[in-house]
Fold Iron-sulfur cluster carrier protein.
Amino acid sequence: MVQGVSTVKHVVAIASGKGGVGKSTVSVNLAVAAAQLGFKAGLLDADIYGPSQARLLGVADGVMPEVVEEKIFLPIEAQGVASMSMAFLTREKTAMVWRGPMASGALQQMIESTRWGDLDVLFVDMPPGTGDIQLTLSQRTQLSGVVVVTTPQDIALIDARRAVEMFNKVSVPVLGMIQNMATHVCSNCGHEDPIFGSEGGENLANEYDSRLLANIPLSRRIRETSDAGEPIVLAEPDNAGALAYRDAASVIMASLDKAARPAAPTISMTD
Ligand code: ADP
């Protein structure tokens, strides 16, 4: 039986320019939401240096994937999704002290040595930025598309723009943007406060003729359910944030079915 992504219908990268904008939280909620919608979904944590999906999926520190035929990993099934992460191969406090090519190699090995099985979609939680790992993934897997996560703040949008430009250069379609932490609703008085601004994600989507897939509020329950290892789409399916994640997953899955899978891009950088 084969391993790698040849049995996966669509590979979708979740990217951001900047770290800390909520990309891992979006990735796990989209994957679990896709599973709730009836799709066979997987989640690859490509954040080699700071893997967080073990915690977000509630997989205990020290639980390792089963190895078959000596060198093939079976993904860990958690919260309804097939998952693989460097976090499953190391302990929580291990620091990954690797140079870029080693990290890219580790990612490549994780992709190629995992027997994902038949999946409708594999979401890839990318590390922030536009470096080695992003290029490796674009070159080694046929990405059906990328979703860019940003907060509405200028400093995040500048880096989100870089991410969009990078994926445009390697011919990976941008499926849309997700704006995170847009408004905070006070749990005492209900007052809505756009702490990081409110329209940046929409403006970014317009700038690139793309679309805003979701506007996720800054919510204490999103943070608490993440920390507890049960994504909010499962823990509180009627929460406003959970509904927004699920709507986004549904639009993404519909757009993938329409889009033909693009050929692997060739990389050429001119400016
Ligand atoms: P990234 O993957 O971009 O580095 P994370 O998903 O790890 O970001 O999120 C960074 C922190 O912000 C985490 O503590 C996470 O629980 C929290 N967080 C993410 N999205 C939200 C949200 N909408 N509301 C509240 N906290 C959030």
